[in-house]
Please model this.
Amino acid sequence: MGVSRFIYIVVGLALAAYTALWVAAAAIYAPTMQWFSYYVVDYRMGFVRRGLGGEIVDLFPSSQYFTVLLTLRWFVPALFILSLIAVAWTVAARFGRAERRLMLALLIPVLPFGVVHAIALPTPNLLGGAALALFAVALTFVNTDRSIMFSSAIYGFTIALLSLIHEAVGLLLPLGAILAVIVLARHRSIKVQRFSAILAVVPGLAVVITVMLVGRRDVTAQCERLPHVAVEWPVNLPMNQILAGQHAYTDYHDWVCSQIIALLNVPAAEVVKVWAHVSAAAMFMTTLFGVAVLAATLFIINKFSGVPFRRFCGLLRGRLWWVIFGIALLLPVFATGADWVRWWVAISFDVGAVYVLYAASQPESAQPATRRTRVFFAAVLIVLLLIPSGTVSHIGFVKNPPPVVAG
Model:
């Protein structure tokens, strides 16, 4: 490569240090209780949504309850970050070493769906994202019809299980899986692609439908298993007070029962009514921000790979209805949840992970980088490091409840 490898090694080490800094900051200052809420119900009272998360916690002694929750809080982003590393390594080395591919690989961790997003918002849907990343990487290696369908079946089964932890997994990931099958297995017959897409999408969708139709709604009794413990909850403290070491606490049992269990009791049709209390300005700004995140992700991949996004879209011809189906499955997630930016980031990952792997396989990404491209790489890297847009969940939608115990 025209530029010394030493420079890129330094960049890689700087990204590792940047990640470590975010981990330390999140461990010290960021509240964790909201991430525990995904694991508060189990199947002891019957089949309920998100029950598998509670069953995982139940595998361990009750004395280790919060230790297990804290472990899950960090295990989820760690697994997702490892999947990003797998994508980055594939981009950098799978199709031949080239400077443009190395630039793409180094930018993947700092894209909106990258490591900071995982650290700041460690929701269980990241487990589905990790599965999608590994599935997409696998499709760049397998080269027989049987191996492609086998990979799709494993992925579909994994998504089905993960949908029992968070029902959004079965709705957020089908678009990415469909794109991966169409684009990364483009040399296979349409019959193989169709069957692979079915194997990848249907199991998770079946679980989501089952949860919606037969999942128990009244989960108030789940509160009995939750301890009364004062948990740090500084969400309403100004940043200067947090940095000064001040703390605020709230009762874990009371907060979960009032904020989470009560929400799980509400049917999806009733949850939709929340939009009557959301301002049009908030919806517009959140949508605009989310679309900008998606556009920026695609622009960066296009710019450094040299592979036009329209060529990527051209591969979807003849499979457009498949893509429309994947997009349609996203609508219930947007209709029943206020975290629209998070959903747009998930969409950018669905499209971006497949696009970057496809772009790395194209001859344009093997072309020498110009001096202008290197300067632009440095500028984009700095901007992405300074503006971690993936940490945003929503804009002006909801307010956090005040802590009930302060100290």
